[in-house]
Amino acid sequence: MVLVVDQMTKFLARRFLDYERPVTVIPGLFDLKLSYNRGAAFGLLPDWAPLLILITLVVIYAIVRLRSSLFAGSGIRSRVFSIALGLLLGGAAGNLIDRLTSPDRTVTDFLSFYILYHDEKYAWPTFNIADMAIVIGALMLFFFYGVGRREDRKV
């Protein structure tokens, strides 16, 4: 589901948003702003598309192997783990599709949050649905698996 929503929203952003003109959704907080990221998160490693593609393929392979071999149980922890891996997988695949299909190997971003304070704009880097899924999936793994495991060891 993450992959489908990500690709649909990116298609709509490319189709209806103008690169030069953001669309204000919530004044002083949120715009739809088309941009193309040549690097990884926050624009790190710009113009390293071949490496980023390779890393993403390795991550996707690891997620699929991990889910199928280690954590096929039942229970809340297993469901949370499966959802987290699904979010990570969908997000990674969504950004990989962008890199493989765009002529300049970029990822489409369009969600722009910012705060206006004393006529200054403080903006978070523009992102997309895949990026959100990756962050949420990683946080779920950390809080529901990593922290939970530490608590289990204390007992």
Give an account of the 3D structure:
The chain is α+β, with helices and mostly antiparallel strands. The chain has one domain (about 1-40, about 60-150). It has helices spanning about 1-15, 50-70, 75-100, 130-155; strands at about 25, 30-35, 105-115, 120-125. β3 and β4 form a beta hairpin. The model has no long low-confidence stretch (mean pLDDT about 85).
Overall number of domains: 1
SSE arrangement, N to C = HEEHHEEH
As laid out across the biggest beta sheet, the strand order is 1-2-3-4
Note the main sheet. Answer: 4 strands, antiparallel
User: Between the first and last Cα atoms, what is the distance in angstroms?
Assistant: 37 Å
Secondary-structure-derived class: alpha+beta
Question: What gyration radius follows from the Cα positions, in whole Å?
Answer: 18 Å
| Molecular shape | globular
Q: Number of DSSP strands?
A: 4
Query: Can you count the helices?
Result: 4
Q: Report strand %.
A: 15-25%
- Low-pLDDT segments: none
Mean pLDDT: 87
What percentage of residues falls in helices of 4 or more residues? 55-70%
